[in-house]
Amino acid sequence: MGGSESRREKWLVERDGLQRLLDALREAGYEPIGPRLRDGAIVYDVIERVDDLPAGWTDRQDGGSYRLKRRADQALFGYAVGPHAWKRFLHEPRQSLWRARRTGTGFRVEAPANEAPRYAFIGVRACELHAIAIQDRVLIGDRYADPAYKARRESAFIVALNCSVAGGTCFCASMKTGPAVESGFDIALTEILDGQSHFFVVESGSERGADLLAQVPCREAGAEALAAADAVVARTAAAMGRELEAEGLPELLLRNLEHPRWDEVAGRCLGCGNCTMVCPTCFCTSVEDATDLSGDTAERVRRWDSCFTTAFSHLHGGSVRASPKSRYRQWMTHKLATWVEQFGSSGCVGCGRCITWCPVGIDLTEEARAIRQSDGIERGKDHGRT
Amino acid sequence: MEGLERIIKEHPFFRDLDPRFVALVVGCAKNVRFDAGEYLFREDGEADQFYLIRHGRVALEMVSPSGGAVTFQTLGEGELVGLSWFVPPYRWAYDARALELVRAVSLDAVCLRRKLDDDHDLGYEVMQRLVPVLIERLQGTRLQMLDVYGAARK
Amino acid sequence: MIPEVARVAGTRRETADTWTLELEPPAGQDVWAYRPGQFNMLYAFGIGEVPISVSGSLRDGARLLHTVRAVGTVSSALARLKRGDSVGVRGPFGSAWPVEEAAGSDVLIAAGGLGFAPVRPALHALIARRERYGKLILLYGSRSPEEILYRREIEDLRRRLDVDIQVTVDHATEAWHGHVGVVTTLIRRAAFDPEHTVAMLCGPEVMMRFTVAALRDAGVARENVYLSMERNMKCALGHCGHCQFGSDFICKEGPVLRYDRIRDRLGVREV
């Protein structure tokens, strides 16, 4: 917070010097995960070489739309975020929790081995840093800590990136979660392309970040480079695709639980749950219990779940939230309102993924705006027509 | 009469009733008692009395499909037994049976109905007290029908 | 969180579809720790886990009681367990009935159906320190006479001179000579000082809503009424998201919640 971060020393690393960063990470025992082009999208996967990055690509995002386009230059990180969030590596989509084995007199339960892989995340955006911090609060900072998440989280090395492209559905500026990265990283990069020059302004954000940076060829960043880096962030901040008025939003939504807008959006929402899959803060999971064919060994597996399913709120032979309207309302009011009371911050980081990946393009900034504009209207209070 | 007047004024159904109305009501009232097992009234009987319970429990019963009598509501001290006296054709819709010794004030419905017709202010006063009882009984019945404690449906 | 394994010391059939399991503590433990109102996640080997409230304990915590109604796959498996069988236990979880906070007040417990089970430990705790409380009243509504839980215990308690117990059923049989009518009809016949009463309610949500309304009409303050809420539960750790009721996780802030906190949500359908 504030000016102390800007006092950090900033260095300059040439584009090709980035390979040395990846190699140093591997030598230190980390597996680098970063953006790669696959199936017409930029996703997060293992990267070995700088050339694995989607150089020269950018994205055009809008409600229900994601397209890749070629850039005029060869920027390595010239795009916004894709459908993947880092949560798929920290809070695995499918995880074995424990096994139980029958014994002569009953059964015993065995804890899992819990060896956490050591990942290095390459290109983590400011919104994503906030999302990771939010999931930390839920999964390790609350009453109970999730040991698997904790182990992965502690060993994860974070190379953050200041965004040079604001996506068509981005609104991190509204949520005060970006585009500048501020804390929670080991190393931060800002990519600069200027005519023939292609380099990164880098800084370390932790001791292990500084140690690793010491192994990468770099020189001190001069005033011009620093100014160029600031300009990248300023340009991105001014180019946000969406806006969300966050002032008083929790109270606004919670006093409008019977607003007719919920019925209106329910007419569009398919209940597909895409938004919950791509959202970097959504954390809901379910568990499955199964035995092997002999019936002597049982396993409990945890997997991602979504509040959009009717089974999610199953109780006493029915669902508490049977209607699509109630499920959309649950998701949006949790994300933007009740999350604040639960965890001390909004659950939304303004990444825009839910807008882009919704098949019908539902935009929660638009839904919030609609409710704000007709705050207080209630269904069934017209008392009929005269 | 003085004792009866006090009893009526103290009964929850007529609490805070204007003194001139109390005098009118008392004219139709008398003290009664029922022993355990005795019927206050029976289904299809003429609804010419109703009761303000002072002591004891009364079971409201109907005949079940299997033939026996089933209680659908239990009333007791401070409560009103009998509502159909107010509405034509003035016939009881169920049985009311004393479960134990019951002391009550019995009100002559024919007498009272005449007074309600003559004095509409008294009529409105009685209606204002009767309707809430009706609503409460109706709502209770709905809750009983909802079968809220039943096992979950699959 | 990994389940511990506990042995079933005994079972007792309560009604046609409800059984109480008596559990020995897991290896290395002499007594069970819990507060009235809390629940454990009980695991039937290979089948699954469900949240079951603690319904009492014996011998100063050396045996734990859980009353299970067989309605689904897991609960049916648990209800079928026999002495000597093993069950997985995680817990205890959740918030407790305000047994301490109610000291100095009259206490009115209103239970409906299987809701008597989660509040019974509170009743035991109140009776154990009877001198700290004013009037102690239990109002219990059941569907029918055959479904009355813990009938023998209720009959024993009625012999005490310092606890007022009223039982009612929604649907009577010919043999039933007790009260018939919804549980709210018992409130007017209970003697308590509304301004100094703490009410603990446990049962189906609709029953608790109407009971709150009747208590409010009688003059009991919103801050003195507690409800035990239920929602779908998977992890009981506040991590899976299933049990949310507005901003509260039933596994953490609940299941016992004070009425003034949840009043606005109770009236909204499908929250």
Describe the structure.
The complex is a heterotrimer of chains A (386), B (154) and C (271). With 386 residues, chain A is an alpha+beta fold. Helix content of chain A is 30%, strand content 24%. Chain A has helices at 17-27, 87-90, 126-139, 147-155, 172-175, 207-213, 223-237, 249-254, 260-266, 274-278, 324-343, 353-357, 364-373; strands spanning 10-14, 31-38, 41-46, 57-62, 65-70, 94-102, 107-110, 119-124, 157-162, 187-194, 197-204, 219-220, 285-291, 297-304, 314-315, 318-319. The longest helix of chain A is centred in the C-terminal third of the chain and has 20 residues, at 324-343. Residues 1-6 of chain A have low confidence and may be disordered. Chain B has four helices and eight strands. Chain C has two domains: 4-93, Beta Barrel (Elongation Factor Tu (Ef-tu), domain 3), CATH 2.40.30.10; 106-266, Rossmann fold. In chain C, β13 and β14 form a beta hairpin. The two termini of chain C are 28 Å apart. The chains are: A alpha+beta (386), B alpha+beta (154), C alpha/beta (271). Chains in contact: A-B, A-C, B-C. Chains A and C meet through β6, β7, β13, β15 and α11 of A and β1 of C.
